[in-house]
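Dear colleague,

Thank you for sharing your sequence with our group. We've completed the structure prediction you requested, and as agreed, I am returning the results in plain text so they can be pasted directly into your records. Please verify that the sequence below matches your submission; if there's any discrepancy, let me know and we will rerun it promptly.
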Amino acid sequence: MDSGHDRNGDPLAPAAARLTARYGPVIGEETIRQVLHETYEALLAGATVTTFLPILAERSAAARLAHTRDHRVPGAPRPIGR
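Please find the predicted structure tokens below.
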């Protein structure tokens, strides 16, 4: 059974890979990871139960990334990592 961690024990690695596959063509991988980790840390700060934080962080980060993708100014410089 998949533990939801990568081989190095990073619980966000699977989420980062999915978000990069989805938003990578428009938003740089480094920016995607930064948004995911910031979101995770914000959720973690107030969490009493952490079991589902990676999936919650992924969903929240996806919403932020979608908003960024949909509101990019044509011709604007690409974000970090692209």
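Summary note from our side: The domain at 13-70 is CATH 1.10.8 (Helicase, Ruva Protein; domain 3).

Kind regards,
the structure core
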